[in-house]
Write a structure and sequence with these properties.
Chain A is mostly loops. Chain A contains two helices and two strands; from the N terminus they run E-E-H-H. Chain B has 189 residues and is mostly helical. Chain B contains seven helices and no strands. The longest helix of chain B is centred in the middle third of the chain and has 29 residues. Classes of the chains: A little secondary structure (74), B mainly alpha (189). Chain A: InterPro entries: Spore_coat_CotJA.
Chain lengths: 74, 189
């Protein structure tokens, strides 16, 4: 997967013409990479120790930086 | 037994004087999917799970206490210099009346922590599935707190904690796979 990829899916809930608020459009939800991994394969690339301590994981394949309001922006 | 390191797992820095963020963060302190619930849940389940995954529960349960300590540091930094009036503005009047400046194990709505937040079913698969769900719920809680917070430094620490939930969930999923793999193996007792 591409670096810095944002792991989200989206859907568009029904918006009635009678609904009082404007249609916010797409709703987004997080689907982080571990959902697709199964058993972690051996010998995956690693971050440097310093980078890993900063990011919270040693594994680029498990890295999913969440951005503020990612849910709304996607 | 534990060995204590007198430092946080990840630095905690708070850049804005915003006690309201403390009110949100309490959810991860003493809420249903918070770090206290996680630590107690995993460490307690260690005794009745196959040997192969006891170490995992031990390690993750221990790390949850390190996360609890980070959350505590955040809440403390956000509230320690606030006046009672500022706490009132932040929606923390009820907390102040009951606890003063002390931290307490409750959720964001001031509901005190309860052991009913956690479960120990004694069935390895049921327990690990609960653990996976707990990690995903904690991950979501961090997302919603980040959404509510404009504090860049605080969000940096919260992003670290959210990433740890992802890694923990992955390891619990692998633990389920380890326990499942026996299916095609002849097991003679």
């Amino acid at each position: 997967m591409a670096k810095n990829q944002v792991y989200t899916k989206s859907y568009h809930p029904y918006h009635s013409p009678d609904d009082p608020c404007p249609d916010p459009g797409e709703k987004h939800y997080s689907t982080p990479p571990h959902l697709y991994m199964g058993f972690q394969p051996e010998k995956l690339p690693q971050f440097s120790p310093k980078e890993a301590l900063q990011k919270g994981t040693l594994w680029p394949a498990l890295y999913d930086p969440y951005e503020k309001n990612q849910k709304l922006k996607g | 037994m534990w060995v204590y390191e007198k430092k946080l797992q990840y630095p905690v820095k708070v850049s804005s004087c915003n006690p309201q963020l403390a009110k949100f963060l309490v959810e991860q302190y003493g809420g249903a999917d918070g770090e206290l619930a996680a630590a107690l849940r995993y460490l307690n389940q260690r005794y009745t799970i196959p040997d192969k995954v006891v170490g995992l529960l031990n390690d993750i349960g221990t790390e949850e206490f390190a996360h609890l300590e980070m959350i505590a540091a955040m809440i403390y930094k956000l509230t320690k210099d606030a006046t009672p009036d500022q706490l009132k503005q932040a929606g923390l009047a009820d907390h102040y009346v009951n606890h003063g400046e002390a931290l307490f194990y409750s959720n964001a709505a001031e509901v005190p922590f309860t052991a009913t937040y956690i479960q120990a079913k004694g069935d390895p698969i049921a327990d690990l599935y609960e653990d996976i769900a707990a990690e995903e719920k904690a991950r979501a809680t961090y997302q919603w707190i980040i959404d509510m917070s404009d504090d860049v430094d605080l969000n940096d620490s919260l992003r670290f904690l959210r990433e740890r939930e992802i890694v923990h969930s992955q390891r619990f999923r692998e633990a389920v796979e380890i326990l499942k793999e026996e299916r095609d193996r002849k097991k003679v007792f």
